[in-house]
Amino acid sequence: MAAAADEVASAEQAAREGTSKAGATNRALTQAPISMLMAESGAERDTAAAAASSTASRARAEEAKLSRARAEEAEEAAAKAAAAVARAEQASRQITVRAGYFGSLKEMLSLAGREVVPVAGDGNCGFYAFLGCEDAIEHCRGRTRAPTARDYAAQQNLREECVKWLQDRPQLTAWHAGMDAVSNSRRQSSWSDAAIKNLEGGKQSTSDSMGVYANEAALRAMAGLRKEPLVVVDSKAGPSLSKQVRNRPPDQVAVYETHAGPEDKRRWFASVMKWMSWANDIAPVLQRRLEGNQLEDDPKYRVIVHNGEPASSRGGHFDATRVVV
Fold first, then answer.
1. Region at 308 (left for phi over 0; alpha for psi -120 to 50; beta for the rest)
2. Short-list 222, 183, 102, CA closest to 175
């Protein structure tokens, strides 16, 4: 009996221990998913925060990109507006010159970004003006008001070069001398042998008398020597001109050619000079060169200014031009 009681007690104890272990196991199994869930919940929060931060960064980047695009659009719109204004101003100027004149020489030259550079009026002015365009005359640079010894020498060298250039082209000079004789438009043709030789008579010192003026033949020779078409703007500023036309330069300008001339004598005149529009032909070429956008076949024009006095007038005068600085 005692043994049976002991066995029953042992069985009950084992049952209690089994129940306790099972409870511990159940509690462990119950608590494990909660910890895992807590861990998973923290990781999700980190992932969500990272995603939110990434989204915010992308939004800021998109906003910055959109701001840059808007700024570029604004700049492009401003550039287009400025170009439209420039075109309108150009069209306005061209409409103005359809009447044949500009309001002033400054307005006319501004189309090409140029200004007048005064030279001494001692009979050498045409040669000074031509050389002044290439900054080869000292009194054009503002260092002195009067020609220097170097200026006198430079213009004299140019005179002699012009005479030689003309004498080396007897067909050209003979043809135009003959045309002048037929038309009787000049007292003495600038193309005669005597007139050409006379071009060597420059003023070479302050004590010398006035130099011989640059004439049509001299201007043609200068263009040929430098191989640069020579544009002569008529400022209409001559003292003998009427008030109706004074200081109203015409759009039409004389352009002296660079080549020696075709063999066909019927075309000799075309080899000397031609009339062109400043606003439509000359200024756009000069402006492109100034902006660095010149075309391959754009001529390299050299521009000087004459005051519009008749060829026979002692009041005639040339000046140089330069890019506005």
1. left
2. 183
Residue appearing with tokens 């001559």: 238
Q: What does the DSSP 8-state code read for residue 318? A: E
What are phi and psi for residue 113, nearest 5 degrees? 65, 35
Burial of 121 (0-12, 13-18, 19+ CB in 10 A): middle
Neighbouring C-beta atoms of residue 202, cutoff 10 Å: 22
In residues, how long is the chain?
A: 325
pLDDT tens for 157-208 read 999 999 999 999 888 888 788 877 777 655 678 899 999 999 999 999 999 9
Give dist(CA 128, CA 136) in Å, integer. Answer: 9
Question: pLDDT of 282-320, one tens digit each?
Answer: 999 999 999 999 999 999 999 999 999 987 788 899 999
Q: Cα(45)–Cα(145) distance, rounded to whole angstroms?
A: 86
* Class level of CATH domain 104-323: alpha beta
DSSP-assigned states of every residue in 101-164: B-S-HHHHHHTTTEEEE----SS-HHHHHHHHTTT--GGGTTS-SSPPHHHHHHHHHHHHHHHH
- Per domain, the residue ranges of the chain are 1-88, 104-323
Strands (E), the chain: 114-117, 230-234, 252-256, 273-277, 302-306, 318-323
Kindly report whether the global pTM for this prediction surpasses the value 0.70. no
Which tops the pLDDT comparison, 74 or 230? 230
How far out from the chain centre does Cα 255 lie? 22
Taking a C-beta distance cutoff of 8 angstroms, is the pair 199, 212 a contact?
A: yes
